[in-house]
Amino acid sequence: IESYMAAPALQQPSFLLANLKVDSTTKPFLQRCQELVKVIDDYPAKELHLIFPWLVESVFGSLDGVIMGWNLQFLQARSNEYNIVMDFLDPSGPMMKLVYKLQAEEYKYEIPVSFLPGPVKASIQEGVLPDCPLFHNKLQFPLSGLQTLSLALNPFEYYMFIFASSLITPKNYPLGQHVSSLDNAYFVLVDTYLKYFLPTEGSVPPSPFADNRGSVSPPAPRAPSVPFAGYGIHSTSLLKRHISHQPSVTADPAAQEIWRSEALLQVFVEIWLHHYSLEMYQKLQSPQVKETFTPTEEHVLVVRLLVKHLHAFSCSLKPEQVCSSPSAHSHASPLEEFKRVVVQRFVQQKLYVFLQHCFGHWPLDASFRAVLETWLSYIQPWRYTGENTNPQTDQNKGVPEKWGLFVQENLLMYTKLFQGFLNRVVRIDLVNVKNALMVFRVAKVFAQPNLSEMIQKGEQLFLEPEHVLHHRQHRVFLTPSHGGSFLSARQSVVTDGVFRVKSHVYGLEGQDCQYKQMFGTELRGAVLKLIQIIAQARQTAKRISDHSAEVAANNSFMSWFGMGSPDLNYTFNGGEVDDTGECVKKTHEFLERSLDYLCLIFRLNAGQLSQLMATLGSGQDDGNSRQLPDCVQGENGLILTDLGRMQIINGLRRFEIEYQGDPELQPIRSYENAVLVRLFFKISSLVNERFGGHMEVLCSRPDFLGRLGRHYLASPEVMADGRQRSPETRRTAERNRRPRLSLRTLASYRTLLMLLFLYLFGVLFSFGPISSTLLILTGGFLYGLFITLFGDKLKSQ
């Protein structure tokens, strides 16, 4: 990449760059940083210009992932190098000083179009001008020998582009390295840049260098003839016209105050969010659509950090600017004007498509929590007003009425994504405490007082007939969702609530979308189904909790001797391994409160809920939980249906899992002595091998002796109980059904303890070891004789 990153072609070789490259492989990290600081301070911009692309790549890594950089995602606060890195890359630090030094000289640096996000790259390659002003007036024809287009970015844009791209660039990290906590250097640096360039208090500090020659003017205003869609409508010659005849833009002095803020936000949004085309989303809303980009959990967490800060930034708008008239806007400072439109203008559309993709394609596991919290952060801007409120008090107080406009302008963020969440949650294991927590979080957020009413009002506005249909297409162009720099033209505020909601929905979902109401009949049925699943999972959690308590009670000191339950064939599905004890109690609590919140959101009274529970109870008794899951017969056996999968996931039904091999070869249990098990197995094997034929003859007799022999010699597996089990081979089945002598019971600590008590009891009555042994054998024989004579009668009774 480096060979074509430095903009001016045919540069003279830089001895400074060569020396720095050598030092980067030989000198310690601290010394390198100290020397870089000295170089930045002492050398002129002409020399620094030649090392800038290399230095940025050596810090953040190259766009193709070959150069690893400083691995900021793995640099934790406890590391010795952490403070050095943070000081060097601080917004007021040496690296940014270098950026400003080059900025004042109007240097440009090229980024190949091939490294842009997919939709932007496709748009440019098709000859269509991207909507984002970041790409306006920067596209260049390839130089001689290059077959790709490129963007010419100023130093600040280039620095932020490489910094943002390092989060999503695939890299071959060393084995064993995993991006972990949120206190790594990259995450903290993102937070630092956001707070510095998008301040909630005060203004952006000015550049330490005069940049009159390098002033970045706001992008050209969008022409009225440019369609709203922005993709696939322009002619293929548009790009060449745009490059050949770039409009002359006069710098707006007011825009200079915040050009860095706008540039930083545009870079972050384009690189982190704009990976899915809105046009493709509208045309092909299908899980079968394959996207080349898959976000990671860390990527989503950084997006959430961006969302949270933008809400705080927007909420810091002065009160008189929030609902003031358009004439008042003309007197607002550029930063205040920026705060007023930042969320709707820059973030809403791309974040919506990004979240929709995540909701439809993210794995069905607990890592979805990152996506979920990003969504919940966006739809609750009132949490970031800077007011110190008690969360519990705020929950009871409800959502202030002033946020009704935000809900209307972001209606799909609430309704459509809630439907996407419903589609996911019915396919996951709600007995898992992490999944139960996610359901609880969503239910708690939507149950905030006033919020459901605001959503309903927005849906009612959307369903209202349009007052002036032929005005809509013209007015959509004036909405603040697309266009050039927001400072390029003062746009009238849309006061028509009906039009506001319709333009939002049609702008994101397309003119032909079929909107499903969140509080409509169809979605209400899906919610009732979810309530039943939650209730079923709650019952399963209670059964697991009761079973765990019973096992814990039995696992006393005596269970070491086999007094506890020895049945290792019994398994209780429906929860993960650690979903016991306190975890199951939390699961039950989360599900219980989720039911309460859902009933509050969708206005289900106690009678309706009781009816649902009664319907559930009539079909799910304890005996039913022992039945097989719903299956259909296939060529190779039973095949689970969707209903059967849901039954297994939520622990409603299960397959009987039992050991069906040779009973003598079962794993040694905790209540057995390993030495004795192996010893008795060898003895019984010798006896069975020598007298096996005689045993078969004895057990095959129909008389009393045959019955007595079957009692002592027949394998317990012969007794079929009619339950459906997995198939076994004929040879295995025949071997397991042969009569044989088994001495494994004598290796049990329980049996040994009983024998010890019997011998001690014999000592009390002056019986010797031989006499006690004969009495024990006689008692065992008489017990078998009694069972043989009267066992059938006892079973019938």
UniProtKB/TrEMBL annotation:
It is a single-pass membrane protein. GO terms for cellular component: membrane. The chain crosses the membrane at residues 747-767, 773-791. Its main location: membrane. The keyword Transcription does not apply. InterPro entries: Sphingomy_SMPD4. Keywords: Membrane, Transmembrane, Transmembrane helix. GO terms for molecular function: sphingomyelin phosphodiesterase D activity. The keyword Membrane applies. It comes from the Eukaryota. It holds the Pfam family mit_SMPDase. It is found in: Membrane. GO terms for biological process: ceramide biosynthetic process; glycerophospholipid catabolic process; sphingomyelin catabolic process. This is Sphingomyelin phosphodiesterase 4.
